[in-house]
Amino acid sequence: MHHLGATRSSLKADHLLQTPDAFIRTPLPGAENVEFIVHVAPQIGARFTQMTAEFAAGGTLGPAPAQRFLYVIEGELELTANGRKHVLAAGGFAYLPQSTQQATRSLGKARVALIEKPYAAEAGSTGPSIAAPQIVVGNEASIAPVPLMGDESLRVRSLMPDGPAYDFAVNTMTYDPGATLSMVEIHVMEHGLLMLEGGGIYKLGESWYSVEAGDFIWMAPYCPQWFGALGKQPTKYLIYKDWRRHPLGA
User: What is the extent of the structural domain holding 232?
Assistant: First the structure.
């Protein structure tokens, strides 16, 4: 039923809440039998692109124009990266550096989070001693959770390596019912956040939002942000941030 323009979605100068009732699907070059929900892109001022890719059975995805991170929400994918094949089930993920030879095919219907970002080399990284980013393939379930700032009710799994070769991070964060961030964060990094399970209350800027599984949030640099989990089941989201690069690019 259409509720005469009602939606939880909201766009402000420093953030976006995009809810499933507002999703628009589109085809994109280099893919067949895949529809994309483009959640955030440079057109809004972001320095990365985050999408949800919805694969029909046998859908294919070609190379990316930038470095790519993918996380399987539902279904299975066969990923070929630099000639090596991997099968990714739900919770599986892969990081593919820029210029990686790659092809992705779904083994049935699948839903996948895609993050793409032009690579920002570390300042002064012209010498042979600077390590290049490497292909990473794994599954979230195999990564040990780490309490955030010692809080056992809020656990982080880091899906990307942390080192100078990598210019962004992707984590999952899982909250027990009632768990909250310990502070309102304000920082130079921007975020892309996809709610995977549960729900709660998000403070973005001066606004408060009820959020639930399926919602997407973009937070611009310096957007005040805070989250508290509600309900009787854990809440989990997938979150991106740019990382390890000087703000002046120097």
Answer: 10-118+132-242
